[in-house]
């Protein structure tokens, strides 16, 4: 039985949930090609923008303008007076679809990418089994740094499917490496460059292929495990402190006030979810958990 309450049904595939500047939940629906905003208290929802290239990661510049990753054309777009314009072109860095993004308080965006055709490999293999073998070595991918003026550089190399990200209370950047089954931390310099790459949590023994993550006030990370119908809270070193059951596999999480919001779907394979409405938003109350006392 799920620990969560289903808040919304009928999504195709929800991703990139974030608490917006106005307190609402913003999220992308890949295959509806929309970014939406949802008031968790009233249930009122609106379409913020349509993204033909398939939206994923979200964030905001210091002046409140929305940034959104356009996956298939490997760009970051900026919402200007109701219209999307190009903020950055990631084509020289992303070797397959662009993916999740973190935008810090200074407007610097860190953007991951698949690195290769993951869904095509899974379809060809008839399932995820080859990816779960400890000896399988996935191709590496670079993490992009997009500065507020839209200039792009490489922030880190050879990450194994860089996915969800969060900022730790000590200022380090935490990156989910989905296909390395772990979380990796980086020191962040004043100019936004990264160094001091350090394993933060090894999660293979728990079967956690970390997809989306959300860092809480105590420095723990809520992790969407992609292959399991639950969300986990993990601390540095890899200790799992909490497990929240969801109704179907969880691919992304956000902490919005005292709520954990989970984006769930039966699978991430496009041939299953792109033409259906099987995705859900599920919510769990965090009162009393670390970081949300």
UniProtKB/TrEMBL annotation:
The keyword Transmembrane does not apply. The keyword Hydrolase applies. Residues 13-253 form the SMP-30/Gluconolactonase/LRE-like region domain. Keywords: Hydrolase. Pfam families: SGL. InterPro entries: 6-blade_b-propeller_TolB-like (IPR011042), SGL (IPR013658), SMP-30/CGR1_Lactonase (IPR051262). Belongs to the SMP-30/CGR1 family. This is Sugar lactone lactonase YvrE. It comes from Saccharothrix longispora.
């Amino acid at each position: 039985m799920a620990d969560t309450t289903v808040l919304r049904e009928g999504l195709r595939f929800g991703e990139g949930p974030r608490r917006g500047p106005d307190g609402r939940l913003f999220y992308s629906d890949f295959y509806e090609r929309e970014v939406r905003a949802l008031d968790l208290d009233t249930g009122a929802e609106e379409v913020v923008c349509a993204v033909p290239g398939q939206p994923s990661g979200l964030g905001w510049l210091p002046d409140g303008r929305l940034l959104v990753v356009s996956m298939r054309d490997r760009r970051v777009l900026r919402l200007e007076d109701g219209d999307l314009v190009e903020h950055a072109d990631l084509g020289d860095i992303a070797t397959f679809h662009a993916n999740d993004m973190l935008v810090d308080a200074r407007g610097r965006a860190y953007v991951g990418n698949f690195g290769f055709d993951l869904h095509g490999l899974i379809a060809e293999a008839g399932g995820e089994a080859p990816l779960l073998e400890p000896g399988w070595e996935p191709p590496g991918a670079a993490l992009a740094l997009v500065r507020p003026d839209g200039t792009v550089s490489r922030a880190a190399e050879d990450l194994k499917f860089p996915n969800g990200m969060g900022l730790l209370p000590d200022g380090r950047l935490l990156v989910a490496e989905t296909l390395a089954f772990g979380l990796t931390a980086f020191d962040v310099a004043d100019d936004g460059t990264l160094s001091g790459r350090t394993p933060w949590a090894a999660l293979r023994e728990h079967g956690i292929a970390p997809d989306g993550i959300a860092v809480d006030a105590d420095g723990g990370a809520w992790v969407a495990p992609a292959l399991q119908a639950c969300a986990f809270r993990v601390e540095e070193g890899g200790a799992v402190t909490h497990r929240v059951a969801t109704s179907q596999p969880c691919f992304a999480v956000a902490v919005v006030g005292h709520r954990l919001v989970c984006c769930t779907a039966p699978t991430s394979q496009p041939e299953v979810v792109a033409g259906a409405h099987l995705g859900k938003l599920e919510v769990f109350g965090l009162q009393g958990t670390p970081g949300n006392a």
